[in-house]
Design brief:
Length: 144
C-alpha cells in the first residue's frame, strides 16, 4: 500500500524561522505530534513533542522567541514514497520514532506518517486476513 494513503498529506509543515509557539499551535490544530521543518522546499528536520519538552521546556526557552530551527531534530530519517509499510514500520520501531516524514527523490516533503496511522492500517489488514481465513473454514460446513 502507498504510504501516502495513510500519511497526513501534505502533513504539518513549518519553516526553520517559525516560532515554537506557532509550531505547537499548528500541531494542536492538526492534532499531530510533530511537524516537518522545510527549507528551500526540502526536508530540513522534524520538530516533535519530545523536542518541545527536552529542548524548549526543560531548557527554559521562550516558545514565542525560539525558532523551530534552533530546537528541531536536523537531518532526520525519512521514508521514500515508494517504501513499503513494512519497511516504514521497521524504521519506526527500530529507532523508536512516532513520526516519519515521507519524501520524494528531491527530499520534498509529501506527507508525515505517524506510528498510530501505520499500526491502525496494519491491524485492519490483519483483521481482513483473519476474516478471510474464518470464512474459508466456516463455508465448507461440518466434516468438510
Amino acid at each position: 500500500m502507498d504510504l501516502l494513503k495513510i500519511a497526513s498529506v501534505p502533513g504539518a509543515l513549518v519553516s526553520p524561522e517559525t516560532s515554537v509557539f506557532d509550531a505547537v499551535h499548528l500541531m494542536n490544530d492538526q492534532r499531530v505530534g510533530a511537524v516537518a521543518v522545510v527549507k528551500d522546499d526540502k526536508l530540513a528536520g522534524i520538530f516533535t513533542e519530545r523536542d518541545l519538552m527536552i529542548r524548549v521546556v526543560l531548557e527554559g526557552k521562550d516558545s514565542k522567541e525560539t525558532p523551530v530551527g534552533d530546537v528541531m531534530t536536523p537531518d532526520c530519517v525519512s521514508a521514500q514514497k515508494d517504501m513499503s509499510m513494512g519497511e516504514a514500520l521497521q524504521i519506526m520501531t527500530d529507532r523508536h520514532f512516532r513520526h516519519l516524514p515521507v519524501v520524494d527523490a528531491d527530499k520534498k516533503v509529501l506527507g508525515l506518517l505517524s506510528i498510530r496511522n501505520l499500526l491502525h492500517q496494519r491491524v485492519d489488514k490483519l483483521s481482513q486476513e483473519l476474516d478471510s481465513v474464518v470464512a474459508f473454514f466456516t463455508a465448507d460446513g461440518i466434516g468438510g
